[in-house]
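Progress against Task 2.4 (sequence-to-structure conversion) is shown through the following example record, which the project officer requested during the mid-term review.
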Amino acid sequence: KSNPFLRVSNDTMYWYGYLFGDGHITSRKYSVGLTSIDLEHLQKYIKYIGENLTIHKRKSSQCYDVLFGNVEAHKWLKDRGFSVNKSYEGKLHYLNSAVLRGLFDSDGSYSGNTSPYFLTNVPEVADQVNTYLNKVGIRSYKTKHSNDDTCINVRIPMADFIKFYNFLYRKSTIDNRLDRKYNKMRLTFEKKCSKLGEFRES
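C-alpha cells generated for the chain above:
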C-alpha cells in the first residue's frame, strides 16, 4: 500500500489539518483513524486515500469512524506530531490556507451569529495559528474557551470575516472542504458583500 500523504497537493495539506482535529493513530495494525458526524465528508476522505475502506456507524452516537491501515502513513503522521489516543505534540509541521481550512472544518466553529473561531488544547498550535493569521493580514486573538479552561479559542473578528473567508477557501474544491460549514460561511460572505455593493471570491 502506498502512503497517500506523500502526494504533494492541497488535498494532502487539507486532510493533514483535518486529521489534527478529528483523527488519531493507533498502536493496533498501524492504523490511522478518522471520526466525523458528516458521512459525506468521510466519503471524500476515502476518495483521497484511494482505497475501499469501510465506514462504521457508532451505536451510541451520531458519529462515524473509518480506519486506514498503512505503516508508512502511520509513520508519516507520527513523525509530524501525532500520537496514540487522539493527541498531538508540538507545533504543526505545515500551515497554509489548506491546512487552516482542515483545522477549521474539524475543530472550528461558526454559528452565523458569532465570529468564527478555531479551538485547540495545544497552546503551541494556538500561538502558531494566531501568529500566522496576523502575518497574512487577518486579525485574530486568543481567548479561553468558555466551557473548558484547558482549551484555547483563536477567534477572528467579524470585521475581518471577508478576508478570512477569501483566504480560507482560496484554491479549495468540493473535495477539500466541509460542505456544511462552507455553505454557512458562504451565506454570510454573500450577505456582507451585498451590503458593501460588491461580490467577489478569490
